[in-house]
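Support reply, case 0932

Customer input (verbatim):
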Amino acid sequence: MLTVILTKGEKMKELMEAMAKNTPTVLEFVAVIAALFVMGVLLEKAAQRKRGVREKLFTTRKVAVIGMFSALSALLMLFEIPWPFAPGNYKLDFSELPILVGTFAFGPMAGVMMEFVKILLKLCFKGTGTAFVGELANFSVGCSFILPASGIYAFKKTKKNAILACVCGTLVMTVFGTAFNAVYLLPAFSKLYGTPMEAILQDGAAVNPLVKESSILSFVAACVAPLNLIKGSCVSLVTLLVYKPLSPIIKAGQQR
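Our regenerated output:
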């Protein structure tokens, strides 16, 4: 028990030191979190007005389910599948699955909260190996999937709209994730690890013949876009299959 406590204490100490050393990135992260929380609340309120209902943003039941689904999502982050058409740091995980199910039940704001708690749990137990750059990317790209999907579904909760929501969420995540990698993530990793961009592109070209060693656009189009498209499609398909039977259980006692 003492060993566990000391290990957790060391992890927290390392995390605090990393935050102190990377203050600009942490501040960027906080700003992104705040902006997406506001967006989630506005979407949820607009959807409630459209449907003519008034629901509390937080209930005891909702907070409990958000915590449970966030923990499940953080657990799923540990099971990463190597992506054969990109360098080794690009891996496929399905941590958005419980979040999409939960956000269909409770709305966009809950989805943003689950994404945030998932990242927070990951930081507490594993720390950051990327000076918070990877965590910022994971949170932002995850929300680019969750917010459009849950926003569309929240306005009209039908099976047809659920399919439309999943398709739109997948497409938005694919486009945003691809652009985000090209504009922010790859340059940030290049600076963080002191690796020339040309070397990163060469790593991509070594595993994917569609990547040109001088073109960051070809890298993100051939390596990143298919990864996000497959992830969004798989998560959407499973969500569409399981959400209806799970929904009464998830939302039982919601108004209490």
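We compared this against your earlier run and they match. Two observations from our side: The chain has one domain: 19-250. Residues 1-6 have pLDDT under 50 and may be disordered. Please reopen the case if you see a mismatch on your end.
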